[in-house]
Structures are given as C-alpha cells and as structure tokens.
Design goal:
mainly alpha
C-alpha cells in the first residue's frame, strides 16, 4: 500500500503476513512462505477486494464486455502467461456461477461493488462487475500471481 504507516518495530499486520522484511534487523535474503493466513488476507482484505473489483471492471470495458477475452487478459496480466484450455473452462465456470449468484442476490453485488473508495463503474451492471471482480480476486490469490519462482 502506498499509505501504510510503517513503524520500525511494529510493521503493518498485512505486511508481516505477506513476509515483508523486518526493519529492526538486517536481512540478507527475504523469507518466502506460503501459508493459509496469506490466502485469507489476499481473499478478504478490503484493499485487495477493491483492487480486484477495479481490475475486473477495467478488463471488461477494455474487452467490450466479452467475458472470455476479459478472463484471458486478466489471467495474462496477473500470471504473465496465457491460460490453458482446462484453466479457461474452470475460470469460465466460476464466472458463470458467480454471475448467476449475483443476479439472484443483487444486494450482494452492490455490497461487493461498494468495498473500498474507488467508485463503481455504473456503465456495467452490478452482477457482472461483482462476478468479474470475484474472479479477479481468485486469480490474484493464485500462487503464480503471488510468488516469484
């Protein structure tokens, strides 16, 4: 985060969860771990949910609301590779399930769309925006998106 207060002996909890370097000792190499707590933070932090929603809206608009192209563009942006056919089927299925859910519960779509301070793009229906945002959040939580190998 750009505006996270950083104290020498008490860094932000999210930063510690994601293995940020400690400021009170010298570290030659940064620790790399993958823990369930990191996944919990990546899936539920309001700042990351907002970023996922904005990314989802952006790719939908750039790809003229074509869901398949949007998924491919988002996958490539987050993992630096093209999705395989099996991965595309899973991602399209997840999108379809979430889109159907948010169409049945539009108040949940509005709730998701209002996370964070970035305004929702009103040119997109809330269920579409929320479903693509949730898909973006899922992709942002992939090991390929989080860890440099």
């Amino acid at each position: 985060s750009l505006y996270t207060f950083w104290k020498r002996t008490a860094p932000a909890p999210v930063m510690m969860t994601l293995d940020a370097a400690k400021r009170d000792v010298c570290m030659v190499q940064r620790e790399r771990t993958a823990s369930p707590l990191q996944a919990l933070v990546l899936l539920n932090d309001p700042q990351l949910l907002e970023a996922a929603r904005v990314l989802g809206e952006k790719v939908l608009i750039e790809n003229e609301r074509d869901v398949g192209r949007s998924i491919r563009a988002m996958f490539q942006a987050l993992t630096s590779r093209h999705p395989e056919a099996a991965e595309m089927r899973v991602l399209e299925s997840l999108f379809a399930q979430q889109h159907e859910f948010y169409q049945q519960y539009p108040q949940r779509a509005e709730q998701f769309a209002n996370v964070g301070e970035a305004p929702r793009d009103d040119s997109l229906p809330a269920p579409l925006s929320a479903a693509m945002g949730l898909l973006a959040n899922t992709l942002m939580n992939l090991d390929e998106s989080v860890m440099k190998r």
